[in-house]
Design a protein that fits this description.
The structure holds two protein chains of two kinds.
Chain A (H helix, E strand, L loop, with lengths): L1 H16 L39 H9 L8 H14 L2 H5 L2 H10 L10 H8 L1 H16 L10 H5 L2 H14 L9 H19 L3 H5 L2 H7 L8 E4 L9 H5 L20 H5 L5 E4 L6 H6 L1
Antiparallel strand pairs in A: 1-2
Helix pairs in contact in A: 2-7, 5-10, 7-12, 9-10
Chain B lengths: L1 H25 L2 H9 L4 H4 L3
The chains are: A mainly alpha, B mainly alpha.
């Protein structure tokens, strides 16, 4: 039940946040320009998608950091901190369209790859480097001759932007096609790599590269909504750890930075030792872990 | 009791984060975000 519920929520949210149908129609303006575009959606969602009704939080953060006159991004960071403090990476598991796309690609019947732990563990840190360098550091420090910065993550890496913004805009907008060059080919290569990787590894972009997941993961252990583990009822069967496609053992780390709070472990637990909650009735195990 | 205090503290933190968000919006950041989000982002698409 929860599996289908999550897919419904993911797809529903994706459609809702990209619900500007006119953007996809011939001859219509290619972007929604109404008041909702002042506000960020919680997940990674390119604001240049023809259907986008809100702003991408990572794009918005870079937009403020690359301003000619430097300013602290109270608006975007306040928003992201509030969302992170409320739900942590619950957003990744339930409200990210690019996450859903990767999950669907993983259903393609190909041989699946288990990344060895000695490679997987350091690669998981890469997303923090992407956040620190491509989203914050370089956009803040590097200036063009005109005085503004560059949104390095959007420009050189973001595959969600290439797919939701780039591909759709190029398909729908004849005027853009002659301007396509090496940068577009690079971004398409990154996107195609992510698509191919997603068929053999579960949510590889989320695990290794997503700066938004990295930001929300900082709040996993302190967020209001969290996963509770009751060690008194746990039988130690290990079904939860085996079911976790993100490679988390919920018995030892129910609020791991890598957990996207999809709830799959809760579904397979025969004794319902795992649940979401706002902190009340916390288990003894979680107290030990945190 | 300790847990209830912890939850109250988290709610205060969320409220503080939202207050920062409102402060930022009132100081013009929402307009910056809107300006960027309401025009086609050439970098996102992959155009120089």
């Amino acid at each position: 039940m929860i599996k289908h519920l999550r897919k419904i929520v993911q797809a529903g949210w994706g459609l809702l946040s990209n619900g500007y149908i006119k953007g996809f129609l011939p001859g219509a303006p290619r972007l929604y320009t109404g008041a909702l575009k002042h506000f960020c959606v919680p997940g990674l969602n390119c604001y240049s998608c023809p259907g986008a009704l809100g702003a991408c939080p990572i794009g918005a953060l870079q937009a403020v950091l690359t301003e000619r006159h430097r300013r602290f991004p109270f608006f975007v960071l306040g928003y992201l901190a509030a969302v992170g403090l409320l739900a942590g990476r619950f957003i990744c598991g339930w409200l990210c369209l690019f996450g859903l796309l990767q999950e669907l690609l993983y259903k393609v019947p190909t041989p699946k790859l288990t990344v060895p732990e000695k490679i997987d563990r350091p690669l998981r840190k890469l997303k923090y480097l992407v956040l620190a360098v491509l989203v914050v550091g370089l956009p803040l420090l590097y200036r063009t001759k005109y005085g503004a910065g560059l949104p390095f993550f959007c420009k050189y890496l973001c595959p969600a932007g290439t797919l939701e913004g780039g591909v759709f805009q190029v398909l729908l907008n004849d005027a853009l096609r002659p301007a396509l060059g090496a940068l577009f080919r690079w971004k398409m290569a990154v996107l195609l790599f992510c698509i191919a990787a997603s068929t053999v590894v579960y949510r590889p972009f989320c695990k290794y590269l997503c700066p938004l997941g990295a930001f929300y993961s900082l709040f996993q252990r302190v967020s209001l909504v969290r996963q509770r583990f009751d060690s008194h009822v746990c039988t130690g069967c290990g079904a939860c750890a085996k079911s976790c496609a993100m490679g988390v053992d919920p018995r030892t780390a129910p609020n791991s930075a890598e957990c996207i709070r999809c709830g799959e472990c809760q579904k397979v637990c025969p004794v319902h030792a795992l649940s979401f909650g706002a902190g009340k009735n916390i288990s003894s195990k979680e107290q030990i872990v945190s | 009791m300790k847990r209830n205090h912890s939850n109250k503290f988290k709610i205060v933190l969320i409220a503080a984060a939202l207050a920062l968000c409102v402060f930022g919006a009132l100081s013009g950041e929402a307009s910056i975000v809107f300006t960027k989000a309401a025009t086609i982002c050439m970098e996102c698409i992959g155009l120089d």
